Amino acid sequence: MITVQSSNLAAIDYDWSGTLTIAFHSGGVYEYYHVPPSEYDGLVHACSHGSYFHAHIKGRYSYRKIAG
User: Fold this and answer.
1) Whether 37 contacts 25, CB under 8 Å
2) Phi and psi at residue 10, in whole multiples of 5°?
3) pLDDT digits over 24-35, tens only?
């Protein structure tokens, strides 16, 4: 996982099969499925990782909580 500077997201990771893993500062860790590489790239390079997450990922991809 790579650490990101965000008030909401702590770290992100991506499996090129399409699974995006996000660790939140609240302690929860979630996997998001079938996320295109372009969305991961957008999240990594966003000025605001949290804003990008809310606009492009949350509510658009199936997910499950894996920790926290």
Assistant:
1) no
2) -100, -45
3) 999 999 999 999
